[in-house]
Structures are given as C-alpha cells and as structure tokens.
Write a structure and sequence with these properties.
This is V/A-type H+-transporting ATPase subunit F. It contains 5 helices and 4 strands; from the N terminus they run βαβαβααβα. The protein is α/β, with parallel strands linked by helices.
C-alpha cells in the first residue's frame, strides 16, 4: 500500500517525492477530479494526500467521497502557505457524518 499526492504546487510535490511519495501537480477542478478518479482505481494506493487549495476547488465531491468511500483514505494537507484551519474542516466532516453540529 502506498501514498499518492495531488498538489497545486511543485514545492509540495518535490518535498513529498523526497519522502518517497509520488504525485502530480494540477490546478483546475477538472484535473483534480480526474487524478482522484485514477488514484481511486489503483488497488495499491491506500492514502491520497490533497493540498488545501485543491480541496477547496471541489470540496463538495471530496466531502462526499470521504463519507462514502472506504478506500482510499483522502487526507487534506496544508500547502506551503499553511493558512487554512484544518481543525475546522475536520469538525465539518464529523458534523456532516453524524448529523450534529460540534
């Protein structure tokens, strides 16, 4: 089982590559969804890392996949600017999953 990265910048891709994680750099919603679809159909990919900026481009689809898909696990990672509050995103996912606002 392996990780796969979908990033919006080359810096994140290069850093992850040094850690042994392969990935792609994309910028448009369509590209994100295409790469995510490819990753979901590869049996050896267990975790897909996606930068915050790209999550925001297709949050509706990714949120639904996180709630419905067992594999791969989709994990949001901060980009090089790191200005997004991951905790709030996690709270939203949990609230959506259980139907109670936290």
């Amino acid at each position: 089982m392996r990780f796969f990265l979908i990033s919006d910048n080359i810096d994140t891709q290069m850093g992850m590559r040094m850690a042994g994680i392969e990935g792609v750099v994309v910028h448009e919603r369509r590209e994100v969804l295409e790469e995510l679809e490819k990753a979901m159909h590869q049996d050896d990919i267990a975790i897909v890392l996606i930068t915050t900026k790209l999550i925001e481009t297709c949050a509706d689809v990714i949120s639904e996949l996180k709630l419905r898909q067992l594999k791969p696990l989709i994990v949001e990672i901060p980009d090089r600017h790191g200005q997004h509050k991951i905790g709030e995103t996690i709270d939203k996912y949990v609230s959506d999953a259980i139907g109670v606002k936290l």
